[in-house]
Amino acid sequence: METVDLLAGLGRALAEGIVADRDFPPFARATRDGYAVRSADLAEVPARLEVVGEVKAGDWPEPGVCSVRRGQAVGIMTGAPLPAGADAVVMVEHTSVAQNPHPNVAQNATLGWGTLGSDTLGCDTLGEKFVEILRSVRPGENFVPRGAEALAGQLLLDRGRRLDHAGIAVAASVGKSRVQVFRRPRVAVLSTGDEVVEMDATPGPAQIRNSNSYSLAAQVQNAGGEAVRLAIAPDEPRRLRELIEEGLHCDLLLLTGGVSMGKYDLVEQVLGELKAEFYFTGVEIQPGRPVVFGDCGLETSVRADGEAAAGTRAGAPAPHKKYFFGLPGNPVSTMVTFELFARPMIEALAGMTPQPLIFLRARLKSEIRTKTGLKRFLPAVLSGEFENAEVELARWQGSGDIAALARANCYVVIPPERERIEAGEWVSLLMR
Length: 432
Ligand code: AMP
Ligand code: MG
Fold this sequence. Notes:
With 432 residues, this protein is α/β, with parallel strands linked by helices. The protein contains seven helices and 28 strands. Helix content is 16%, strand content 27%. A hairpin with a 6-residue loop joins strand 24 and strand 25 (390-393). Helix 3 packs parallel to helix 6.
């Protein structure tokens, strides 16, 4: 755990609960601009009430000085405390001023404000003035009672919750300028492939630049982890093993490429040499079918020659299990399998309470034809507005088309048994 400035906690998991330091709201708070009244006075409307003062936000209406008695009203602004005696607020839109509106404040007059009084703090005293109330109100209307949202000492945000902008607002509202959060898990990112070169290199005719390490690093950061990008591993077991061992020093290792059926897809073989336990070695989805997940435990990371390897140093406390994902190298497969499998793992390692993935639904803009057998996650563009969300597959040239992928904003999820989905059907989406 560590304690950080509130805004530095954005995206981190709370290691402490956030507790109300006082009642919320701390006073009965008006939620409308208008007049504080006794609802009983408005059994019959229109009713004429004597305006005996005004409370604006930030004023404190001392009960002895500013309260509402029978037949009276107090002008009140949104966010101001309800004066004693009042049990409701009438919106100014439902009032009109009964007497001599000031000629200079025509707009206020039509709204039922009339001339506002002197600036006596707490409850402005006015000359004799009346307001006509056009609609009745129920007791409790248009204000929030003290403590209705939370009582002092009540838990507002749980430990394990990820701090987003709304959580930051809650922390700020209780005066938490510093918050205790969980450390970010360190996530090693290891790209494999003889054809892959670093982005500032000039690729040879058969080479491509490494983009997966960067998309993954960005996804890791987004999920609340800290990415550690390793060197690119060639499709050669010795160097690959060295880099895997280096990656196992982190809290989680993400590999990309080298997990398919190719002759030079060596990731599973090398992990096997490291006595990895595989929890699964494939999933029935497309793209992303070859993804593998497992761990290398303590004893498995000690080499045959007895030399301590990944995570085991003399005198160091026994390391816990080191988990890894082998993600397929196709950029879209890498991105999809990260969202489906690696993200929840990183969130768990980051101390977050597990959250289910959220799938939305939208209407399909144009027909889709696919092969059956696997659940498909197809890059798509969600558009439209309000209740008319529409989705359409991204136009792309197969799973290496990163630019088309970047223009998409979600994945359409197609059940394995569907071969054809008509325009206008509702489909599931995974947002990106
Ligand atoms: P693999 O899973 O190793 O068979 O790779 C599948 C496809 O993804 C191949 O076309 C690779 O060239 C490509 N690929 C693999 N690693 C990367 C990477 N780090 N960045 C971009 N493309 C990659
Ligand atoms: Mg490869």
